[in-house]
Structure formats: C-alpha cells, structure tokens
Amino acid sequence: MRTQISKNENSKGAVQANATHGLRDLFEVGLKDIYWAEKVLTKTLPKMMKNASSPELVNSLKNQLSETKEHVSRLEKIFEVTGVEATAIKCEAMGGILKETNSLIRQTDIGVVRDAGIIAADQKVKHYEIATYGTLHAFAKTLGEDKVASLLAMSLDEEKRTDAALTGIALNAINSQAHRADAITNT
User: Fold this and answer.
1) Distance (Å, whole) CA 157 – CA 130
2) What is the DSSP string of 52-80?
3) At 19, phi and psi to the nearest 5?
4) Per-residue pLDDT averaged across 64-68, rounded?
5) Which is nearest to 153 in space by CA: 167, 135, 169?
6) What does the DSSP 8-state code read for residue 135?
7) If DSSP codes are grouped into helix, strand and coil, which group holds residue 3?
8) How far apart are CA 56 and CA 122, in angstroms?
9) Could you tell me what percent of the chain has a pLDDT over 90?
10) Alpha-carbon distance values, 72 to 36, 134, 165, 180 (Å)
11) Domain residue ranges of the chain, discontinuous segments joined by +
12) Does position 27 have pLDDT exceeding 90, yes or no?
C-alpha cells in the first residue's frame, strides 16, 4: 500500500501527506481491514459457540468458523495475486461489534435469550462483512482485478448465505422461545 488513511485533517480540510489518494489505496486498506476482522473472528466464533445453547446455532457457528478460516486463506491468496503485503490493519468497526458481543454474552444467562443475542450480534458481523466484501468486489472489478473480484464474490456469497441461515434459525425457533421465556419471567 502506498499510503494510510489519515484521521487528521488540517484546518482547511486538506488531507495530510499520509492520506489515501486513490481507489487502489482504498482497496488495499479495505483488504487489510477485513483480513484483521476475519482473523479475529477465528478466535471469537469459538467463544460464541461455547456460550450458545441451541444445537442448531452451535452448528451454524461451527460452519462459520470453517468458512471464516477459508476467508482468511482466500484473502491471503488475494494478497499474493495483487502483490500487496498480507498485513492486518485493526478494523475499528469490527472491534466495536465484537466488544458489544462480548458484553452481551456477559450480561445474559445461558439459554434462548442469550442465543437470540448471539444471533443478533453475529448478524451485525455478517452485515459488516457483506458491506465490506461487496465494496471490495466492486473496487476489484473497477481496478481490472478480475481474479480477485471472483475470489471476493465467493466470500460475499457465503456471508449472504450465512446471514440468511441465521435469520432462519432466529425466526424458526430462537426468537419465539426467547419471547416465551421473557413472558414467563415477567409474570
């Protein structure tokens, strides 16, 4: 990558010398950002599995872990193909989502309510990944990186399928069970 995104601007709004100057730079920063996020998820998903009680949710999280490891490998292939150094830049957005996830787990008792919270948190993760992979795919297409665009499209499609599966788990059982548990507690 040629430059980093600057968090600082001078008083006239001009970006300092370490600013990103072009689409290629944004693309490289985005790759490093999602690389960090995916690597951190390989450590976070087992914690989510440990705290989930629904066998269907645990199975979904196990599948996601396998898929996430594949995403890390795929990103490493993308770095190789593009000649970009495979380094991770901390993703503040994902860091915030995962901090919120950990807080939710600490604040809920194991059971269907926690499961509903884990699904909600996981879908926030999925939506961030969908947005990021979608953007990177569009950047790759624009930059003429067709092989990279194809690899990114694979991850994007997998994230969308996982999000839909999580919605199914929530709607088919977890949310109504959590609602009933809440009704019993409040009577």
Assistant:
1) 8
2) ---HHHHHHHHHHHHHHHHHHHHHHHHHH
3) -80, 160
4) 98
5) 135
6) H
7) coil
8) 14
9) 82
10) 9, 16, 21, 39
11) 23-181
12) yes
Q: What is the pLDDT of residue 187?
A: 57
Q: Answer whether 166's CB lies under 8 Å from 60's CB.
A: yes
Neighbours of 121 (CB within 10 A): 20
The DSSP code sequence of 10-54 is -TT-PBPTTS--SHHHHHHHHHHHHHHHHHHHHHHHHHHHHH---
pLDDT band at 13 (very low <50, low <70, confident <90, very high): very low
Rg from Cα positions in the chain: 19
- 159-175: burial string, b at 16+ Cβ within 10 Å, e else: bbebbebbeebbeebbb
Q: How many angstroms from the chain centroid is the CA of residue 176? A: 26
Do residues 28 and 84 touch, judged by C-beta distance below 8 A?
A: yes
Do 81 and 140 contact (CB within 8 A), yes or no?
A: no
Decide which of 1.20.1260.10, 3.40.50.920, 3.40.50.1460, 3.20.20.140 is the CATH code for 23-181.
Answer: 1.20.1260.10
180: its two tokens: 């009933």
Q: 85 falls in which pLDDT band (50, 70, 90)?
A: very high
